Amino acid sequence: MSETQAAQRPGPARRENVLAALDRRQPSAFYWSLTLLATLGGFLFGYDTANIGSVLDFIPYHLSGFALGYLVAGASVGAAVGAILAGPATDRFGRKSLLIVDAGIYAAGALLSAVTWNAEVLLVARTLIGLAIGADSAIATAYISEYAPANRRGSLSMLQQWMITVGILVSYLVALAVLRSMPGNAYGADWRLIFGLGAVPALIGLVLRTRMPESPRWLLQQGRYEDVRKALGKLGVEVSLRQVEDTAQEVLRQERREQSDKRVSHWTPGVRRAVLVVSVFFVFQQITGINVPLYYGPHLLAPLFQSGGHGQAVDAAIAGVEVTAIMTAVNVAATYFGFKYIDRIGRRRLSMGAYGGMAVAAVLAGIALGFLSGTAEIVVVMIGLDLFIAAFAVGVGGTGWLIQGETFPTAVRGRAASLCATADWLANFALIEVFPVWQGAIGLGWVLVCFAGLCLMAIAFVWAFLPETKGLSVDEIIHLYEKQARTGRPASGIGPAAHQETG
Questions:
Q1: What is the rounded distance in angstroms from the CA atom of residue 55 to the CA atom of residue 53?
Q2: CA distance linking residue 289 with residue 361, whole number of Å
Protein backbone atom coordinates (compact mmCIF):
# COMPACT_ATOMS: atom_id res chain seq x y z
CA MET A 1 0.00 0.00 0.00
CA SER A 2 1.35 3.45 -0.90
CA GLU A 3 1.63 6.32 1.61
CA THR A 4 -1.14 8.16 -0.24
CA GLN A 5 -3.44 5.13 0.04
CA ALA A 6 -2.61 4.74 3.69
CA ALA A 7 -3.44 8.37 4.33
CA GLN A 8 -6.81 7.97 2.65
CA ARG A 9 -7.69 4.80 4.53
CA PRO A 10 -10.18 5.41 7.39
CA GLY A 11 -8.86 4.93 10.88
CA PRO A 12 -6.37 6.41 13.33
CA ALA A 13 -2.95 7.68 12.54
CA ARG A 14 -0.16 5.15 12.81
CA ARG A 15 0.71 5.80 16.48
CA GLU A 16 -2.70 6.94 17.68
CA ASN A 17 -4.67 5.16 20.40
CA VAL A 18 -7.26 3.10 18.50
CA LEU A 19 -9.82 3.56 21.29
CA ALA A 20 -9.53 7.33 20.90
CA ALA A 21 -10.29 6.89 17.20
CA LEU A 22 -13.34 4.83 18.13
CA ASP A 23 -14.51 7.59 20.49
CA ARG A 24 -14.37 10.15 17.64
CA ARG A 25 -16.11 7.95 15.09
CA GLN A 26 -19.42 9.23 13.67
CA PRO A 27 -22.15 6.59 14.08
CA SER A 28 -23.03 4.87 10.81
CA ALA A 29 -26.18 2.95 9.97
CA PHE A 30 -24.39 -0.15 11.26
CA TYR A 31 -23.94 1.50 14.68
CA TRP A 32 -27.66 2.18 14.95
CA SER A 33 -28.68 -1.29 13.79
CA LEU A 34 -26.16 -2.87 16.18
CA THR A 35 -27.52 -0.79 19.05
CA LEU A 36 -31.10 -1.75 18.22
CA LEU A 37 -30.06 -5.40 18.30
CA ALA A 38 -28.20 -4.91 21.60
CA THR A 39 -31.29 -3.27 23.09
CA LEU A 40 -33.70 -5.94 21.86
CA GLY A 41 -33.57 -7.16 25.44
CA GLY A 42 -34.98 -3.77 26.43
CA PHE A 43 -37.95 -4.39 24.14
CA LEU A 44 -38.48 -7.84 25.67
CA PHE A 45 -38.00 -6.34 29.13
CA GLY A 46 -40.83 -3.89 28.40
CA TYR A 47 -43.10 -6.47 26.75
CA ASP A 48 -42.66 -9.24 29.31
CA THR A 49 -43.00 -7.04 32.39
CA ALA A 50 -45.99 -5.05 31.12
CA ASN A 51 -48.07 -7.85 29.60
CA ILE A 52 -48.97 -9.04 33.08
CA GLY A 53 -51.02 -5.86 33.50
CA SER A 54 -53.22 -6.76 30.53
CA VAL A 55 -53.93 -10.35 31.61
CA LEU A 56 -54.01 -9.97 35.40
CA ASP A 57 -57.81 -9.91 35.53
CA PHE A 58 -58.15 -13.00 33.30
CA ILE A 59 -55.68 -15.51 34.75
CA PRO A 60 -57.95 -18.25 36.18
CA TYR A 61 -55.79 -19.17 39.17
CA HIS A 62 -56.62 -18.18 42.74
CA LEU A 63 -53.86 -15.96 44.05
CA SER A 64 -53.38 -14.58 47.56
CA GLY A 65 -52.37 -10.96 48.04
CA PHE A 66 -48.68 -11.87 48.27
CA ALA A 67 -48.88 -14.23 45.28
CA LEU A 68 -50.65 -11.54 43.27
CA GLY A 69 -47.89 -9.08 44.06
CA TYR A 70 -45.25 -11.68 43.19
CA LEU A 71 -46.96 -12.47 39.87
CA VAL A 72 -46.61 -8.80 38.93
CA ALA A 73 -43.19 -8.28 40.49
CA GLY A 74 -41.72 -11.78 40.33
CA ALA A 75 -39.82 -10.93 37.16
CA SER A 76 -38.01 -8.33 39.24
CA VAL A 77 -36.77 -10.99 41.67
CA GLY A 78 -35.39 -13.02 38.80
CA ALA A 79 -33.94 -9.83 37.35
CA ALA A 80 -32.03 -9.09 40.54
CA VAL A 81 -30.52 -12.58 40.47
CA GLY A 82 -29.84 -12.40 36.73
CA ALA A 83 -28.10 -9.05 37.07
CA ILE A 84 -25.77 -10.16 39.85
CA LEU A 85 -24.87 -13.38 38.00
CA ALA A 86 -24.33 -11.63 34.68
CA GLY A 87 -21.62 -9.29 35.97
CA PRO A 88 -18.82 -11.82 36.59
CA ALA A 89 -19.98 -13.90 33.61
CA THR A 90 -19.82 -11.04 31.11
CA ASP A 91 -16.41 -9.89 32.39
CA ARG A 92 -15.13 -13.44 31.88
CA PHE A 93 -16.93 -14.64 28.74
CA GLY A 94 -17.68 -11.35 26.97
CA ARG A 95 -20.69 -9.13 26.31
CA LYS A 96 -21.83 -10.87 23.12
CA SER A 97 -22.00 -14.40 24.57
CA LEU A 98 -24.23 -13.33 27.44
CA LEU A 99 -26.54 -11.36 25.16
CA ILE A 100 -27.06 -14.52 23.07
CA VAL A 101 -27.81 -16.65 26.13
CA ASP A 102 -30.26 -14.03 27.43
CA ALA A 103 -32.31 -14.15 24.24
CA GLY A 104 -32.69 -17.90 24.66
CA ILE A 105 -33.84 -17.54 28.27
CA TYR A 106 -36.37 -14.88 27.23
CA ALA A 107 -37.85 -17.29 24.67
CA ALA A 108 -38.02 -20.19 27.13
CA GLY A 109 -39.74 -18.08 29.79
CA ALA A 110 -42.34 -16.71 27.37
CA LEU A 111 -43.21 -20.18 26.05
CA LEU A 112 -43.46 -21.64 29.55
CA SER A 113 -45.78 -18.78 30.56
CA ALA A 114 -48.03 -19.59 27.61
CA VAL A 115 -48.36 -23.32 28.33
CA THR A 116 -48.42 -23.09 32.15
CA TRP A 117 -50.79 -25.54 33.85
CA ASN A 118 -50.99 -23.98 37.31
CA ALA A 119 -50.13 -20.84 39.25
CA GLU A 120 -46.84 -22.22 40.56
CA VAL A 121 -45.48 -22.92 37.08
CA LEU A 122 -46.54 -19.44 35.96
CA LEU A 123 -44.67 -17.89 38.88
CA VAL A 124 -41.57 -19.91 37.95
CA ALA A 125 -41.88 -18.82 34.31
CA ARG A 126 -42.11 -15.17 35.33
CA THR A 127 -39.02 -15.55 37.49
CA LEU A 128 -37.18 -17.20 34.57
CA ILE A 129 -38.04 -14.23 32.34
CA GLY A 130 -36.70 -12.03 35.09
CA LEU A 131 -33.30 -13.76 34.93
CA ALA A 132 -32.97 -12.71 31.30
CA ILE A 133 -34.25 -9.19 32.01
CA GLY A 134 -31.73 -8.66 34.77
CA ALA A 135 -28.79 -10.08 32.85
CA ASP A 136 -29.63 -8.06 29.77
CA SER A 137 -30.06 -4.87 31.77
CA ALA A 138 -26.60 -5.37 33.25
CA ILE A 139 -24.92 -5.98 29.90
CA ALA A 140 -26.64 -4.00 27.12
CA THR A 141 -25.64 -0.43 27.95
CA ALA A 142 -22.16 -1.53 29.04
CA TYR A 143 -21.73 -3.15 25.63
CA ILE A 144 -23.02 -0.05 23.84
CA SER A 145 -20.79 2.30 25.83
CA GLU A 146 -17.72 0.30 24.81
CA TYR A 147 -18.14 1.06 21.10
CA ALA A 148 -20.22 4.24 21.06
CA PRO A 149 -18.50 7.55 20.12
CA ALA A 150 -18.16 9.86 23.11
CA ASN A 151 -20.37 12.63 21.67
CA ARG A 152 -23.20 10.24 20.76
CA ARG A 153 -22.97 7.74 23.60
CA GLY A 154 -25.96 9.27 25.36
CA SER A 155 -28.18 9.01 22.29
CA LEU A 156 -27.12 5.45 21.50
CA SER A 157 -27.51 4.27 25.10
CA MET A 158 -30.90 5.98 25.40
CA LEU A 159 -32.17 3.48 22.83
CA GLN A 160 -32.28 0.98 25.70
CA GLN A 161 -34.94 3.05 27.46
CA TRP A 162 -36.75 3.77 24.20
CA MET A 163 -36.91 0.05 23.41
CA ILE A 164 -38.30 -0.63 26.88
CA THR A 165 -41.07 1.89 26.27
CA VAL A 166 -41.80 0.43 22.84
CA GLY A 167 -41.98 -3.04 24.36
CA ILE A 168 -44.48 -1.84 26.95
CA LEU A 169 -46.60 -0.15 24.29
CA VAL A 170 -46.51 -3.19 22.00
CA SER A 171 -47.57 -5.44 24.88
CA TYR A 172 -50.73 -3.39 25.39
CA LEU A 173 -51.43 -3.10 21.66
CA VAL A 174 -51.07 -6.88 21.28
CA ALA A 175 -53.36 -7.38 24.27
CA LEU A 176 -55.97 -5.07 22.75
CA ALA A 177 -55.81 -6.86 19.40
CA VAL A 178 -56.17 -10.29 21.01
CA LEU A 179 -58.89 -9.31 23.50
CA ARG A 180 -60.90 -7.34 20.94
CA SER A 181 -60.75 -10.12 18.35
CA MET A 182 -61.57 -12.94 20.78
CA PRO A 183 -63.37 -11.42 23.80
CA GLY A 184 -65.07 -14.71 24.59
CA ASN A 185 -61.68 -16.37 25.21
CA ALA A 186 -60.36 -13.75 27.63
CA TYR A 187 -60.21 -16.32 30.45
CA GLY A 188 -58.88 -19.06 28.15
CA ALA A 189 -56.59 -18.79 25.13
CA ASP A 190 -56.21 -14.99 25.06
CA TRP A 191 -53.94 -14.50 28.05
CA ARG A 192 -51.79 -17.48 27.02
CA LEU A 193 -51.34 -16.03 23.52
CA ILE A 194 -50.39 -12.62 24.91
CA PHE A 195 -47.65 -14.28 27.00
CA GLY A 196 -46.45 -16.62 24.25
CA LEU A 197 -46.00 -13.99 21.55
CA GLY A 198 -43.07 -12.63 23.54
CA ALA A 199 -41.06 -15.63 22.34
CA VAL A 200 -41.13 -14.44 18.70
CA PRO A 201 -38.75 -11.43 18.99
CA ALA A 202 -36.64 -13.39 21.48
CA LEU A 203 -36.01 -16.18 18.97
CA ILE A 204 -35.24 -13.64 16.24
CA GLY A 205 -32.76 -11.96 18.56
CA LEU A 206 -31.19 -15.31 19.44
CA VAL A 207 -30.27 -15.79 15.78
CA LEU A 208 -29.21 -12.23 14.95
CA ARG A 209 -27.10 -11.66 18.06
CA THR A 210 -24.69 -14.37 16.92
CA ARG A 211 -23.57 -11.96 14.19
CA MET A 212 -22.73 -9.06 16.52
CA PRO A 213 -19.08 -8.03 16.97
CA GLU A 214 -17.64 -8.46 20.45
CA SER A 215 -16.77 -5.32 22.42
CA PRO A 216 -13.32 -4.11 21.26
CA ARG A 217 -12.55 -2.75 24.73
CA TRP A 218 -13.31 -6.10 26.35
CA LEU A 219 -11.23 -7.93 23.73
CA LEU A 220 -8.32 -5.56 24.36
CA GLN A 221 -8.61 -6.23 28.09
CA GLN A 222 -8.34 -9.97 27.32
CA GLY A 223 -5.26 -9.54 25.12
CA ARG A 224 -7.04 -10.79 21.99
CA TYR A 225 -5.45 -8.23 19.68
CA GLU A 226 -6.31 -9.79 16.33
CA ASP A 227 -9.97 -10.01 17.40
CA VAL A 228 -9.78 -6.35 18.44
CA ARG A 229 -8.61 -5.43 14.95
CA LYS A 230 -11.46 -7.40 13.35
CA ALA A 231 -14.10 -5.92 15.70
CA LEU A 232 -12.87 -2.39 15.03
CA GLY A 233 -13.02 -3.10 11.30
CA LYS A 234 -16.70 -4.01 11.61
CA LEU A 235 -17.21 -0.71 13.42
CA GLY A 236 -15.53 1.21 10.59
CA VAL A 237 -12.14 1.80 12.21
CA GLU A 238 -9.40 0.17 10.10
CA VAL A 239 -6.22 -0.42 12.10
CA SER A 240 -3.15 -2.62 11.99
CA LEU A 241 -2.24 -5.24 14.54
CA ARG A 242 0.73 -3.06 15.57
CA GLN A 243 -1.59 -0.14 16.36
CA VAL A 244 -3.72 -2.39 18.55
CA GLU A 245 -0.64 -3.66 20.39
CA ASP A 246 0.61 -0.09 20.90
CA THR A 247 -2.76 0.87 22.37
CA ALA A 248 -2.69 -2.16 24.69
CA GLN A 249 0.74 -1.07 25.96
CA GLU A 250 -0.51 2.47 26.50
CA VAL A 251 -3.52 1.23 28.47
CA LEU A 252 -1.26 -1.02 30.54
CA ARG A 253 1.09 1.90 31.32
CA GLN A 254 -1.87 4.01 32.38
CA GLU A 255 -3.11 1.27 34.71
CA ARG A 256 0.36 0.94 36.22
CA ARG A 257 0.52 4.68 36.85
CA GLU A 258 -2.83 4.56 38.61
CA GLN A 259 -2.00 1.40 40.55
CA SER A 260 1.70 1.51 41.43
CA ASP A 261 1.17 -1.49 43.69
CA LYS A 262 0.04 -4.47 41.61
CA ARG A 263 -1.81 -5.83 44.60
CA VAL A 264 -4.24 -2.89 44.47
CA SER A 265 -7.67 -3.93 43.25
CA HIS A 266 -9.51 -2.37 40.31
CA TRP A 267 -12.20 -1.58 42.91
CA THR A 268 -10.69 1.79 43.82
CA PRO A 269 -12.43 4.31 46.09
CA GLY A 270 -13.71 6.09 43.00
CA VAL A 271 -15.18 2.90 41.52
CA ARG A 272 -16.86 2.02 44.82
CA ARG A 273 -18.27 5.53 45.06
CA ALA A 274 -19.53 5.30 41.47
CA VAL A 275 -21.28 1.98 42.18
CA LEU A 276 -23.00 3.55 45.18
CA VAL A 277 -24.07 6.69 43.30
CA VAL A 278 -25.44 4.83 40.28
CA SER A 279 -27.18 2.28 42.51
CA VAL A 280 -28.91 4.96 44.55
CA PHE A 281 -29.96 6.71 41.33
CA PHE A 282 -31.55 3.42 40.25
CA VAL A 283 -33.31 3.04 43.59
CA PHE A 284 -34.84 6.51 43.24
CA GLN A 285 -35.76 5.68 39.63
CA GLN A 286 -37.94 2.83 40.95
CA ILE A 287 -39.30 4.02 44.31
CA THR A 288 -40.61 7.27 42.81
CA GLY A 289 -43.34 5.09 41.32
CA ILE A 290 -43.02 4.83 37.56
CA ASN A 291 -44.03 1.18 37.34
CA VAL A 292 -47.26 1.56 39.31
CA PRO A 293 -49.25 3.00 36.36
CA LEU A 294 -47.37 0.85 33.83
CA TYR A 295 -47.79 -2.48 35.65
CA TYR A 296 -50.99 -1.94 37.61
CA GLY A 297 -52.67 0.54 35.24
CA PRO A 298 -55.44 -1.68 33.81
CA HIS A 299 -56.09 -3.22 37.23
CA LEU A 300 -56.38 0.22 38.88
CA LEU A 301 -58.33 1.99 36.14
CA ALA A 302 -60.74 -0.76 35.06
CA PRO A 303 -63.15 -0.22 38.03
CA LEU A 304 -63.73 3.36 36.86
CA PHE A 305 -65.34 2.00 33.69
CA GLN A 306 -67.30 -0.91 35.20
CA SER A 307 -71.08 -0.74 35.58
CA GLY A 308 -71.71 -4.36 36.59
CA GLY A 309 -72.11 -7.85 35.15
CA HIS A 310 -69.60 -10.36 33.78
CA GLY A 311 -69.66 -9.00 30.24
CA GLN A 312 -69.26 -5.49 31.54
CA ALA A 313 -66.31 -6.66 33.63
CA VAL A 314 -64.50 -7.81 30.49
CA ASP A 315 -65.35 -4.55 28.71
CA ALA A 316 -64.12 -2.56 31.70
CA ALA A 317 -60.87 -4.51 31.76
CA ILE A 318 -60.37 -3.83 28.06
CA ALA A 319 -61.07 -0.13 28.69
CA GLY A 320 -58.41 -0.20 31.42
CA VAL A 321 -55.96 -1.70 28.93
CA GLU A 322 -56.87 1.00 26.40
CA VAL A 323 -56.20 3.93 28.72
CA THR A 324 -52.96 2.31 29.90
CA ALA A 325 -51.95 1.92 26.26
CA ILE A 326 -52.40 5.68 25.91
CA MET A 327 -50.01 6.21 28.82
CA THR A 328 -47.45 3.87 27.29
CA ALA A 329 -47.71 5.74 23.98
CA VAL A 330 -46.90 8.94 25.88
CA ASN A 331 -43.93 7.06 27.36
CA VAL A 332 -42.58 6.19 23.90
CA ALA A 333 -43.07 9.71 22.53
CA ALA A 334 -41.50 11.44 25.53
CA THR A 335 -38.45 9.17 25.45
CA TYR A 336 -37.60 10.70 22.07
CA PHE A 337 -36.92 14.05 23.74
CA GLY A 338 -34.53 12.41 26.20
CA PHE A 339 -32.83 10.68 23.28
CA LYS A 340 -32.50 14.04 21.48
CA TYR A 341 -31.29 16.21 24.34
CA ILE A 342 -29.30 13.97 26.71
CA ASP A 343 -25.99 14.82 25.01
CA ARG A 344 -26.84 18.53 24.81
CA ILE A 345 -28.37 19.30 28.20
CA GLY A 346 -26.42 16.73 30.18
CA ARG A 347 -27.30 14.00 32.64
CA ARG A 348 -27.59 16.12 35.79
CA ARG A 349 -29.82 18.93 34.54
CA LEU A 350 -32.11 16.66 32.57
CA SER A 351 -32.68 14.24 35.45
CA MET A 352 -33.27 16.98 38.05
CA GLY A 353 -35.77 18.72 35.79
CA ALA A 354 -37.52 15.42 35.11
CA TYR A 355 -37.85 14.57 38.80
CA GLY A 356 -39.34 18.02 39.36
CA GLY A 357 -41.92 17.39 36.64
CA MET A 358 -42.76 14.00 38.14
CA ALA A 359 -43.37 15.58 41.55
CA VAL A 360 -45.79 18.16 40.16
CA ALA A 361 -47.65 15.57 38.08
CA ALA A 362 -47.98 13.12 40.99
CA VAL A 363 -49.49 15.82 43.21
CA LEU A 364 -51.93 16.77 40.43
CA ALA A 365 -53.14 13.19 40.06
CA GLY A 366 -53.36 12.78 43.84
CA ILE A 367 -55.50 15.91 44.22
CA ALA A 368 -57.85 14.68 41.48
CA LEU A 369 -58.32 11.36 43.27
CA GLY A 370 -59.06 13.14 46.53
CA PHE A 371 -61.37 15.93 45.42
CA LEU A 372 -62.93 15.05 42.04
CA SER A 373 -65.30 12.36 40.84
CA GLY A 374 -66.84 10.97 37.65
CA THR A 375 -65.49 12.06 34.29
CA ALA A 376 -63.55 14.99 35.76
CA GLU A 377 -61.66 12.62 38.03
CA ILE A 378 -60.77 10.26 35.15
CA VAL A 379 -59.62 13.12 32.91
CA VAL A 380 -57.43 14.87 35.48
CA VAL A 381 -55.98 11.61 36.79
CA MET A 382 -55.08 10.61 33.23
CA ILE A 383 -53.46 14.00 32.58
CA GLY A 384 -51.47 13.75 35.80
CA LEU A 385 -50.30 10.19 35.13
CA ASP A 386 -49.43 11.01 31.51
CA LEU A 387 -47.31 13.97 32.63
CA PHE A 388 -45.73 11.82 35.35
CA ILE A 389 -44.73 9.18 32.80
CA ALA A 390 -43.58 11.78 30.26
CA ALA A 391 -41.29 13.50 32.76
CA PHE A 392 -39.77 10.16 33.76
CA ALA A 393 -39.23 9.17 30.14
CA VAL A 394 -37.46 12.42 29.24
CA GLY A 395 -34.86 12.54 31.96
CA VAL A 396 -34.92 9.66 34.45
CA GLY A 397 -35.43 6.29 32.75
CA GLY A 398 -32.78 6.53 30.06
CA THR A 399 -30.36 8.47 32.23
CA GLY A 400 -30.17 5.59 34.68
CA TRP A 401 -29.23 3.03 32.03
CA LEU A 402 -26.80 5.48 30.43
CA ILE A 403 -24.78 6.26 33.57
CA GLN A 404 -24.77 2.56 34.45
CA GLY A 405 -23.14 1.71 31.13
CA GLU A 406 -20.68 4.58 30.77
CA THR A 407 -19.31 5.03 34.28
CA PHE A 408 -17.03 2.11 35.12
CA PRO A 409 -13.58 0.99 33.89
CA THR A 410 -13.53 -1.87 31.39
CA ALA A 411 -11.94 -4.40 33.74
CA VAL A 412 -14.89 -4.32 36.15
CA ARG A 413 -17.63 -2.75 34.02
CA GLY A 414 -19.72 -5.92 33.84
CA ARG A 415 -19.56 -6.62 37.58
CA ALA A 416 -20.10 -3.00 38.57
CA ALA A 417 -23.02 -2.56 36.17
CA SER A 418 -24.57 -5.78 37.45
CA LEU A 419 -24.45 -4.54 41.05
CA CYS A 420 -26.25 -1.36 40.00
CA ALA A 421 -28.83 -3.31 37.99
CA THR A 422 -29.40 -5.56 41.01
CA ALA A 423 -30.17 -2.52 43.14
CA ASP A 424 -32.60 -1.35 40.44
CA TRP A 425 -34.48 -4.65 40.36
CA LEU A 426 -34.62 -5.10 44.12
CA ALA A 427 -36.10 -1.62 44.43
CA ASN A 428 -38.54 -2.43 41.61
CA PHE A 429 -39.63 -5.62 43.37
CA ALA A 430 -39.99 -3.94 46.74
CA LEU A 431 -42.23 -1.20 45.37
CA ILE A 432 -44.43 -3.44 43.21
CA GLU A 433 -44.78 -6.04 45.97
CA VAL A 434 -45.67 -3.51 48.66
CA PHE A 435 -47.89 -1.29 46.52
CA PRO A 436 -51.19 -3.22 47.03
CA VAL A 437 -50.74 -3.04 50.80
CA TRP A 438 -49.62 0.60 50.65
CA GLN A 439 -52.61 1.58 48.54
CA GLY A 440 -54.99 -0.30 50.82
CA ALA A 441 -53.60 1.52 53.87
CA ILE A 442 -53.63 5.16 52.72
CA GLY A 443 -55.26 5.20 49.27
CA LEU A 444 -53.79 5.81 45.82
CA GLY A 445 -53.96 9.61 46.13
CA TRP A 446 -51.72 9.73 49.19
CA VAL A 447 -49.36 7.17 47.65
CA LEU A 448 -48.89 9.59 44.76
CA VAL A 449 -48.13 12.42 47.20
CA CYS A 450 -45.48 10.18 48.77
CA PHE A 451 -44.01 9.63 45.31
CA ALA A 452 -43.79 13.41 44.88
CA GLY A 453 -41.82 13.69 48.12
CA LEU A 454 -39.44 10.98 46.98
CA CYS A 455 -38.91 12.86 43.70
CA LEU A 456 -37.78 15.93 45.65
CA MET A 457 -35.33 13.76 47.59
CA ALA A 458 -34.04 12.42 44.27
CA ILE A 459 -33.36 15.98 43.04
CA ALA A 460 -31.27 16.68 46.14
CA PHE A 461 -29.34 13.44 45.64
CA VAL A 462 -28.54 14.13 41.98
CA TRP A 463 -27.42 17.69 42.76
CA ALA A 464 -25.09 16.50 45.52
CA PHE A 465 -23.60 13.30 44.11
CA LEU A 466 -24.01 12.79 40.34
CA PRO A 467 -21.21 14.41 38.27
CA GLU A 468 -21.85 15.60 34.73
CA THR A 469 -20.31 13.21 32.20
CA LYS A 470 -21.50 14.44 28.82
CA GLY A 471 -18.73 14.68 26.22
CA LEU A 472 -16.26 12.53 28.16
CA SER A 473 -14.94 9.16 27.02
CA VAL A 474 -15.80 6.12 29.11
CA ASP A 475 -12.13 5.96 30.10
CA GLU A 476 -12.23 9.52 31.51
CA ILE A 477 -15.47 9.35 33.47
CA ILE A 478 -14.21 7.30 36.39
CA HIS A 479 -11.67 10.06 37.14
CA LEU A 480 -14.56 12.32 38.21
CA TYR A 481 -15.53 9.82 40.88
CA GLU A 482 -11.91 9.31 41.89
CA LYS A 483 -11.64 13.05 42.45
CA GLN A 484 -14.84 13.08 44.50
CA ALA A 485 -13.59 10.18 46.59
CA ARG A 486 -10.22 11.89 47.10
CA THR A 487 -11.39 15.44 47.83
CA GLY A 488 -14.94 14.98 49.07
CA ARG A 489 -16.13 17.77 46.77
CA PRO A 490 -19.83 17.70 45.78
CA ALA A 491 -20.84 16.72 42.27
CA SER A 492 -22.01 20.26 41.61
CA GLY A 493 -18.39 21.35 41.63
CA ILE A 494 -17.10 18.63 39.30
CA GLY A 495 -17.75 18.32 35.60
CA PRO A 496 -15.98 17.96 32.28
CA ALA A 497 -14.33 21.37 32.56
CA ALA A 498 -13.08 20.71 36.07
CA HIS A 499 -11.76 17.32 35.01
CA GLN A 500 -9.88 18.80 32.10
CA GLU A 501 -8.29 21.39 34.35
CA THR A 502 -6.95 18.85 36.77
CA GLY A 503 -5.84 16.35 34.13
A1: 6
A2: 12
